[in-house]
Amino acid sequence: MDALDPIESVNTFIGTKDEGNTFPGASMPFGKAHSSPVGSHYAGYRYDDPVIRGFGHFFLSGAGCWEQGGLVPILPVSGGLPSSFDHKRYGARYTHDGEIGKPGYYKVKLDRDITVECTATTRAGVERYTFPSGTSGTLLVNVGQANDKEPVSASSIKVVDDRTITGSVETQAFCGGRPYVTHFTTRFDRPFREFGTWSPSGAKPGQRESAGGAGLRGAWVTFEPGPVTACTALSQVDAQGATNNLEAETAGKSFDEIRNEAQDAWRQELCCIEIETEDWDERAVFYTALYHVLLQPLTGSDADGRYRGFDNQVHHAEDWTYYEYYSLWDTYRAHNQLLALIRTQRSKDIARSVLAIHEQGGWLPRWAFANQETNCMTGDPVTPFLVDLWRFGHLKGFEDQAYRALLQNVDGVPPESSRFQGRSGNRTYLAKGFVQYDKRFPKKGQDTDPHHGASATLEYALADATLAIMAEELGHKEDAERLRKRGLNHRNLWDHSVADRGFTGFPRPKLQNGAWLSPFTPQGADGFHEGTAWQYQWLAQHDINGLITALGGKAAAEARLDDFFAYQDLLTDPKRTVREKWVVGPYDYYNQFRYNPNNEPDLHAPWMYALIGKPEKTSVVVRAAQTLFVNGPAGVTGNDDLGTMSAWYVFSVLGMYPAVPGTGEFVPHAPRFRRAVVHLENGKDIVIKAEAADTTKTQVVERIRSGWLSRAKDRIELAELRSGTTLEVDLHTLSN
């Protein structure tokens, strides 16, 4: 359908401003290692940074906490060593002129006429450094520093021979997690003539090793004139693992060969969805979103299958790939389902990887970083995450194991000796039907559920209702019944006496003794995590009839949604309304009464219109929200959260969204393009036709037709999608 190269349609600079926190450098799909510039921002590169401190080899895409990698940054310099080995002082200025950011390839020109090109294999970041003609070049390999606000607590570096450097870096895991160690091996394509190392005590020419705790540490190598290629492979297993990864993926290959392989891999991945549009910016936004989706989770196992597990022991993944880094509070809402639909084999390995965490750590994760649980965020995201993978068929052969792990998670609390915090509010939740609001409750990491008791209650209830679906189909009838009942626990926090903006009834935190938190306002921060009662009131999509009753009926629910989205203003000027009335700062979660497209708690809220019988309004809201995604560095509103916001956009463009976890059902809305084709790994195609689609107009669905049971649709079922289908969508244009 579309002969254009999807590689050329991606702009990796999208999201590199306004706290989108993406990185522009090179990666393989789901790659363990990267090659990308490090600036003064905690996520690595920010588009308006004036200086590049080096080219690091590990990043997270779109995350929100400070500790985000940038490990082993290498910076090329000429004209002698810098006066300071602090990369905040020796960083190089650069120009955006000629800068390129495409899947598998990044290029930039630094001052002193030095050009840097980046590419990657799955487990190695690769750079080609080109110095001015006739000029000797030096590379500064920094192991004592990383991204801004990423503390390095220990490091080592060793010049092994005239082409090879090895070492290790101990850094802190995401969101205040524990330290962990990354091993690396760097190999150059030609020998260097001079070398030395530095440590907190200063530079030592000719010295081969430097090791110790926190502080400036690294090595320099100087080459005869000419370009130099450096390949840096990573491993969390051991030093040999890094060397093995380097040999397996880069040995005997030139920079151009590695770049071509990386771009071919991306071409294969990105071709899984084709869209029909003549608008170049539209193409760039869509394919960059798909690219960001396909960056994670990250490959965790080395080339030989070894990986470091949650028991800190080395395990072996034979005939499958172990994946790690799971931002589950984010990804269970859209990213997980998109991968499950379009990347089935990887999703099977993802499911198996999460079960391996349970096997080795004793409990299921919430925010798993490398081989540890950070206990970041709240609620119970792993339950809908795994249940959806089961629903999509990706737990075959592991259903019983997964169910036992999930049942342990929803019914228990990890012991004090466990690193996992799990559902820390479960004791009160199971006894009284709610998680208490208690800011003094002890925590094992950054977050714990009673600190946000009201939102945790809603998250638990959604998880319970989701697991009830799996329990029923696996034949666990008694479990299913009690889980269904627990899925209604969100009702226990509904206070019909609370009023705000002319509406009565909101979820309200309860204290340990069952008393309502007082004073309380639905726009306040107390009891809710990264949101307010206004946003969290919609997190009951599994109990839509109960929610409609609480809201006072369908008409009252519609009126509240209208106020929440500023619906009448959307009809008049959608682009202006979403930016003036929805969007706040990326970390301004509270004192809000409207939809927050920057964050996850109400991502599904546009489809609440459809669930209450007003699907045309879902289309209006979704089309308006799409205007926030643009082809430029500020093209992602708020953190992309490891591809979650990008996955939301991809689903929104296709015209369907997985609003209710565990059901395998997608709620339809107006597609953005005249035609889109999703190529599934089973050889089937999902074809979405909307001949009248016009992105300049506000459009709603008039009718959806397909051969599936020959009926109009208010839901699209997973079985139909997997069997291959053509959805013909008739659109109606609203007059403003």
Brief characterization of the structure:
With 736 residues, this protein is of the alpha+beta class. It has 21 helices and 35 strands.
Structure description:
This protein is globular. It contains 21 helices and 35 strands. It has a 10-stranded antiparallel sheet. Helix content is 28%, strand content 24%. The chain is an alpha+beta fold. InterPro entries: 6-hairpin_glycosidase_sf (IPR008928), GH-type_carb-bd (IPR014718), GH92_a_mannosidase_put (IPR005887), GH92_N (IPR041371), Glyco_hydro_92 (IPR012939), PNGase (IPR050883). This is GH92 family glycosyl hydrolase. Residues 10-235 form the Glycosyl hydrolase family 92 N-terminal domain. One of its GO terms (molecular function) is hydrolase activity. Keywords: Hydrolase.
Secondary structure: elements and pairs:
Layout: E1 26-27, E2 34-38, E3 51-52, E4 54-56, E5 74-78, H1 87-90, E6 92-102, E7 105-110, E8 114-120, E9 124-130, E10 137-142, E11 152-161, E12 164-172, E13 179-188, E14 194-199, E15 202-205, E16 209-213, E17 218-223, E18 228-235, H2 239-250, H3 255-270, E19 273-275, H4 280-293, E20 298-299, E21 306-308, E22 314-316, E23 323-324, E24 326-327, H5 328-331, H6 335-342, H7 344-361, E25 367-369, E26 372-373, H8 382-391, H9 399-411, H10 426-432, H11 453-473, H12 477-486, E27 494-500, E28 503-507, H13 533-536, H14 544-551, H15 554-565, H16 567-572, H17 574-582, H18 608-611, H19 615-626, H20 644-654, E29 656-657, E30 665-668, E31 675-679, E32 685-689, E33 699-705, E34 716-717, H21 718-722, E35 725-733
Parallel strand pairs: 32-35
Antiparallel strand pairs: 1-2, 2-4, 3-6, 5-10, 6-7, 7-8, 8-9, 9-18, 10-17, 11-12, 11-16, 12-13, 13-18, 14-15, 14-17, 19-31, 20-23, 21-22, 24-25, 25-26, 27-28, 29-30, 30-34, 31-32, 33-35
Helix pairs in contact: 4-20, 6-7, 8-9, 8-11, 9-11, 11-12, 14-15, 17-19
